[in-house]
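User: Hello, can you help with two protein structures?

Assistant: Certainly.
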Amino acid sequence: MESYILDWANLLLRWLHVITAIAWVGSSFYFVFLDSSLTPPQDEDLKKQGVSGELWAVHGGGFYHPVKFAVSPPKLPDHLHWFYWESYTTWLSGFALLTVSYLWNANIYLVDPSNPHALHPHAAIAAALAFLVVFWLLYDGICRIFGQRERGDAIVGALVLVLVCFAAWLACQIFPGQAAFLLMGAMLATSMSANVFFWIIPGQRTVVKDLKEGRPVDPIHGKRGKQRSVHNTYFTLPVLFAMLSNHYGWLHSHAQNWLVLILMMFAGAAIRQFFVMRHGFKLGRNAHPWPYALAGVLVLVATAVWLKPVPKAAAAVAAASTAPAAAPVAAAAGVPGYEAMAPLFTQHCVVCHSSATLAQKNVKLDAPDEVKLHANQIYQQVVVLRKMPFGNPGALSDAERDLVKRWYEGGAPVR
């Protein structure tokens, strides 16, 4: 019953999380586009009102004319739309999903049994939460100390890059690859939402309060909010990659998975930079940003080439093709039988795939006939994709995966 309830919680939280994330990312991307696409107003009346930029757009059968005031409008309207619940709901639903999926089962998902220095499940939970909090504190400190200095954006960018790289390496040393990738995404997403909660919205509230009470508006609030908003847009693609990576075991199970993670996040940030600068290029404000797109694509291609499956040695293939056919009994002798596979299935698989539980994807591996029926899926998930056991693929050693490979390629015998 607990498994059934957790599955429903996982489904509904994941649904909510994806919907609100789409809303948050969409509004963030739109406003970055809007800021990059504004042009000086042509209308003299708009100039007198303090408008610094305008955009004409057409969408859904109508024409839109958004304008941006340099610091504040001459008169505050009765109704303002605040963009913050998209961020808060995304983080709250994401943290709840992290709790239900990973923290609740820390002994399965946060502890790698093959790691001789593996943490106790309670320590692993504390370490996971520490990643979210400590990164935010360090990142926020960097922004506070260096953000307003000369060339502050470049200094902050370099220091945050170093911090992210170190965090990626450390996460992959402490946690199984899948959990490490996901926690890196949660870590960056936490800082994104914290930017909204601690800086962007409070700054906007201060500006609104000053306007209502007739005090002059300090432009520093807008500058700080803009800076954190720009950081968020560069975090977005790395976060989305980290959240999607748990579907691809060959990424997070690699021996240098920390480097894979860094390269993929760098590619995402570089590609995002291309799209941010592309709007300015169209208005003649900067050179064409194609080098950023090229850098991102080259990193992606190089990573794909690096991670490609290693083919069998040509000599071994040639020897196998010219060797005389062995007797059927001798050939079968090298194929593991069901008696060799059953302990592996019992230890790693039947906890989620048995007749006695709500078998995930209706795959049951607690009987020979069921194992035979799903042999191809077992091979794909365990050997090709290296995705299983879900949440902790490191629980299976390379020797155990090779056992599954030889069993499947030998006909997957169960008798």
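That covers the first. Now for the second protein you mentioned:
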Amino acid sequence: MSVEQAHDPERCQGVDVGITRVFQVLGKRWNGPILSVLMDRPAYFASLRRAIPGISERMLSDRLAELGAAGLVLREVDEGPPLRVAYRLTPAGAALEPSLRELGDWAKEHLPESPC
């Protein structure tokens, strides 16, 4: 038996709007690792896929599109031949670097190791 809960705006008043917006983007699986790779350097699609074990091409493509729509990643097409697509952080994406590195350091200190 499921209990339906109605949205109550008063109950949500304690939730920080900025934190909510950040985790709508960064809380999705794969977005953190993608941003982490791009913090170090721009990368071609194939290089990103190799750098992130377990991500499918479809998921990588979807996540890159979402990060692009959020204004964090820029897609650049090299007409070639061969045609190659590279991705890099926008200034807004690059501005996340100190915060992401701090979160990574926090995780190393406070979160248990996960088995590979």
